[in-house]
Each structure stands twice: as structure tokens, then as C-alpha cells.
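Final report, closing paragraph on structural work. Over the funding period we assembled a curated collection of sequence-structure pairs, and we close with a single example.
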Amino acid sequence: MTTTTSSSSSSSGSVSGRNGSIVTGRRYESRINNNSGELSGSNETSPTVSTRILKPGQIRSEPNIPVSSPSVNVLPTGNICSSGKILKTGMAVNRSSRPDVLGSRSGNYGHGSIMRGSGMGIGHITASKGGTFDHNNTMGKAMEPDEVKRIGNEMYKKGQFLEALSLYDKAIALSPGIAAYRSNRAAALTALGRLGEAVKECEEAVKLDPNYWRAHQRLASLLLRVGQVENARKHLCLLGQPQDRTELQKLQAVEKHLCKCTDARRIRDWKSALRETDAAIASGADFSPQLFMCRVEALLKLHQLDDAESSLSVVPKLESCTNSCSQTKFFGMFSEAYLFFVQAQIEMALGRFENAVTAAEKAEQIDPRNVEVAVMLNNVKLVARARARGNDLFKSERFTEACSAYGDGLRLDPSNSILYCNRAACWFKLGRWEHSVEDCDQALSIQPNYIKALLRRAASNSKLERWADAVQDYEVLRRELPDDNKISESLFQAQVALKKSHGDFGEEACSIKQFRAAISLPGTFLPLHSPKFKLSSFLPSRIPS
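Its predicted structure, as stored:
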């Protein structure tokens, strides 16, 4: 049996549940059951011996079952007693009522076993003045795994979850067959936001003791948080065990909103899908990568690309994925495939076409039989190809053909702001500025702060002598890029042209004084710092003396 490591480090990566970084979750609220030493939730019930059916050779999970010391301690030469004196072979030893030696519950210890009071035990755990524990102190007393676990529980109650995790690791290393140690370790991992590892630990606890109700309950709660409703139900609704009404109500609420979200997505009602997704998360599935990615997909379909992109930063990352989770279906596809399915869409919308193809291919590898995944992969490849062809044609100054290539991509992905902006550049080169403005409008309706689209629309409006519209776009650009001299010059030129069109100056200007008065009006910006600016080019050609 493999022991899970207790490292708390994580790496940032893709949206995938396999490689993603960890998003710290809310502190897992739980209390310590002082009878058994098991970390339990507020509504867990303590399993009794009568409810546990042990298989032949199985170790009972109750962590505090008294361990009897053997009637005769075999003490080879070199053993040290509590007084510090060296015992001779056969010397009688007074036994304490509690186990003193950290071992495997056997009275026969080999040469050099260290008795309570003088030597080093496995783990070297001692209390310090600050309430923490020194794992390396060579004067720490030797302890049984239950004692190690008990100290771990104390650390957990103090909120020192990493220390608690380390102690549970030691207890598991000493007695790997105790289900309660695995369940406690899962609680510490949950408090650290490492829910994927916590799920694995609970699953291991259930394997060790299938009748361990607390482990089933904790596993159900974790599975519900990560959005695995059906798997959570299997562990929450066990025959012969009391049901946790609070968790059951949460499960039913999440399930209801998830069903409504599925229906809304099927008919492309993205506003309803977004609303039901948020409700499912609020109801208890607060660590589900799939539900958070559903938010991203809905925002993307609603042409809220900036919000969709920012929502990616709060998608929970499961550091590991169990087989039971990876095989769960979400919107008809494997749950992990859905993560890459949405990632491919957002990458393409942001103009990262190669990344989009890679993500789509990963989704297809995970769920090769899903029709929706297959269609999306084909479309992503075709759109990426159309964009690459359009770029090559544009560089070759074959602008009409480039327009056609970008149009092919837009027929497959009609919400791609990048393709609209690229086609607008072609229209501008062809002198078809009206079409350029229309494509820029489309791009900006999807991505309102798209700088390139704003620049091209402002330039096209200037060509069409729509000075008010040009000034409006250039003012937005100047706020976004205050140090860009070219934008400052273009803004000034558009402002001067707008004032000329209103008759504020120009042929009617009769003096430098009148010109200065005109350009000092609110909203007028004079780029005197620009080396290309020449005041004479904006003055009237003939000014009476």
C-alpha cells in the first residue's frame, strides 16, 4: 500500500485536474472526538463496535483500543530503564500501565530498544514552550501511533494543519492499516485546500474499513464540494447507516441546480446556465472545476470575454484526480475532458489558436467517443488554419483573398473578435472603411477593451471624416496608453478637424490669439511634446496683420 506524501507545494499549470495548481479552499470546520481521537465533522456520528464487521485479518479502525503490554518483556543487553541504569539480563522490570515503546505492538524488541525516560523513539516528538512540537528533538519520548495521532489532533485543533499532517503521516507509517489515521489525514488536507489528495485518503480509509461510516461521510462531503454528485450519494446514503440530513439537503440542492444548468446549456440559454451554475456553487459545490469552467463557457457565449478570462483565475485546481472522479460524466462528456473543451474555446477567443488546438486534442484523447468534443476539435483546427492562411495572404498584400480567408474562419466561429479585427485591417487597406468600421464594431461588442480594434475603428472613422467618433475612440485609447505619442497626435488632429468642421477656426480664424482660444477649449489636447508636431501645419495659411 502506497503512503501519500505530505508535501504542501503545488505547481501552476493548465486547467486540467491532473496538473493544475491548488486554490486554497475554505477552512474545513470540524471538531475532535475525544473518545476515539478521530477528527469528525459537526454532524458525524461515532461508529460503534457493533456496527463494524471485521473481515478475517482486518485491523479494527478504532484508534484508541487499549494495547496490553506483554507479560514478559525480553530485554537484551543494552536496554535502558527509566532510572537510567543498565539492566542485566533477566533483571525484573516494573511495567507501566501504558505502552512505553513506539513499535508494532509486540513485546519482543531487538537490541537497543529505548525505554521511556531516557532515549530516542521513532518520530522524536516533544512539546515546546510555544505549543508546537519539535519532531527532531533527540530527547523526545517514544510513542505509540495512537499517541502520535493524538498530538496530531491537538495540532489540528490549534489550526496548525501542516504539523498535524506530518504527525498523521508518522502514525500511518507506523500503522498503515488503521482507517481512522487516513480519515484524519484527509481532514488536514482539506483544511489546506488539497481536496484532491483528501478524496484519495478517504477512499483509502473506506478500502481499509468498508464499514467505517465517518470515512464515508467525509468522502461524501468532499465529493459534493468537487461537484461529483452521484459519487457523493453512494457514500452518503449507505444502507443501515444514519443519514446526515444537512449534507443530504446540500446534495439535493446542488443536483437540482445542476440539472437546470444542463437543460439551459442544451438549448443555448446561456444566461440561465450562468445563473444555475452560480446557484450550484453557492449550494455546496464550491470546489468544482467543472462548474467554474461552465461559468467561463457561459460568459464566453454571452460575449463577455474579459469576464470569462478573469474567471479563469478562480477556477479550483485539483492537484490529483481519482479514477472515480475522472470517469464521471459532465454535460455528457468525461469531467476532465470538459475542462479542456472549455479551455480550447477561451484560447481561441483570445487569439491563441495553437493553444486552442492543443487543448482540444487533449479533450479528444480523454473522451474520444464524444460527438461534441469531436466537432469542436474539427472546428478549432479549421479556424486556426483559416487564420494562418489569412495572415500569410495579408503579409503578401493580397488583401481581398485575406478577407475571404478570415471570413471562412468566422463562418465556423462567428464570435471570434480576433478574426473580425484582422478582416477590418484588410478592409482598411482596400479603402473600404465602412466595412472596416463594421467589423471593428463586431470585435468590440465581444471584447470592449480590444486596443487594436479601437485603433482601426478610429483610423477608419477619420478616413470617413467622422471626427466625433474618431475623437471618442482616441480619447479612450489615450486613457489606456497615456505615453503613446502617436495616439496623442492622432487625437489632436481629430480634435482640430472636428473644430474646423464646426467652424470654430480655420478660414475664419484671424489671429494667433483666436487659434489659441480655440485649442484651449475643454477636451482639446495639444501634443507639444511630440517631435513630429508642427504648430504651423494647423494654423490658417493667411492671417491678416
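Confidence is low (pLDDT under 50) at residues 1-132, 136-140, 507-513, 528-545. Residues 371-395 form the longest helix (25 residues). We thank the funder for supporting this effort.
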